[in-house]
Amino acid sequence: MSGKKGWKQLPLGGVIPGGGTSDAYVTGGWRTFRPVLDRKKCTNCLTCWVFCPDSSILVVDGKHGGFDLKHCKGCGICAAECPKKIQAISMVEEAEFKSEGVCHAEG
Amino acid sequence: MPKGKIAGITGNEAMAEAMRQIAPDVVAAYPITPSTQVVENFSQFVADGKVPTNFVNVESEHSAMSACIGAAAAGGRVMTATSSAGLALMWEMLYVAAGLRLPIVMACVNRALSAPLNIHGDHSDSMGARDSGWIQLYGENAQEAYDNALMAVGISEDPAVRLPVMCCYDGFTISHAIERVELLADEAAKKFVGDYKPLHPLLDVKKPVTYGAVDLQDYYTEHKRQQVEGMTAAKGAIRREAERFAKLSGRSYGSFATHRLEDAEFGILSLGSSAGTLREVVDELREEEGIKVGTLKLRVFRPFPAEELAAALGHLKVLAVLDRADSFGAFGGPVFHEVRSALFDAAKRPRIVNFIYGLGGRDLTLEEGRQLVHRLKKAADTGKIESHYDYLQVRE
Predict the structure, then answer these.
(1) Which of B166, B188, B280, B292: disulfide with B108, CB 3.0–4.6 Å?
(2) What is the CATH number of domain A29-100?
């Protein structure tokens, strides 16, 4: 718990002053399955971006830019919604990425 | 300063007057006996344009407290009133109000909890909420109910405190009995409570804030520790508001008030409306039988004034703590536990016994008070305590 603010420094009542702070709160650690993109199959239709409940599909120049693994919970909706003929996203057990550390890397 | 007036009104009417003078931004309430008249009168003031408050009609007390929490987080000065089952239905939200550090002032008109169904006064409602994080002030009469409400605003809103306050007074005995009450002039009351400067108001859209975010193993402990500090700061705020109020009204308030206790051998400690009866008992027994007895009326139960109580009670031979609520299966009632604990480390301390009294509105009579003192004297004379925990008024 070192490095975290003590009770004398924290705002009262758990109030979080300032907006947009959920970006700084890493929730990707909740994930059991990680989405992995096969770029050869992906057509950049961005159906996954439409359906992702955590805004964790990154878009770069109008194309699929990978996953925001700091916030992706591994729900698998992106993989399920990827069109049947394409199937560009597979869900891989997080344990497979053990050597990479947990969830902090951008996907 | 404009002069106030003297009125013949009930405790509830006095509370409604205090609320009108405080003129909160929002009052959200659901009527329940015996607090109904507070809400009834206040909503009439709103309907008649006598107070600019936004009065929210809700469908339950859970909703009433939820609306109060929302309005307080938005940045408003907020009040409500309830009793008994109404307070019980607020339970979940009482902790939220305190945990979010929202200054809300509530009139808690004490009433027994069911079952069996009973609408009359005892302290089982507010005593059950003693761990919810609310400051608790107990008024003996209509005057104190009114005065406590005015002082509660400044206590609650103190930047170092920021905790909700319950202003408790006994159902029917105080809420429905007409008494002489000195009311401040509206202008004087308005000036006394001052303007409210909210901290982190949700309606300040230029400074967005989050209320009620999840707070897990990594921070929850720190936020609970902060609440302890708020209660500690409340002791100073309660003193300060009492001093300010005394200058304005001539009426002085401490954490408790004693009557002929300084040279006493026997003491009786109680909260609320029974204090007047017990003072009468003390005066009679001192005059007629020469028994050195005194009383202590506890006004502030949260934060509990442990050190002050130990200093005021240590010299007694035997002390009776009167609880108007039981804690079933415990070793006595809630006030007893804490008073006894406060005195445990005192260099000198009395024998302390507990009596449960006044349940479901049962009156404490002068004769019962006299019998009580005789039991204390007998315990001192024989050195034997019959029982540390007993019901004062019960048929075998």
Answers:
(1) B166
(2) 3.30.70.20
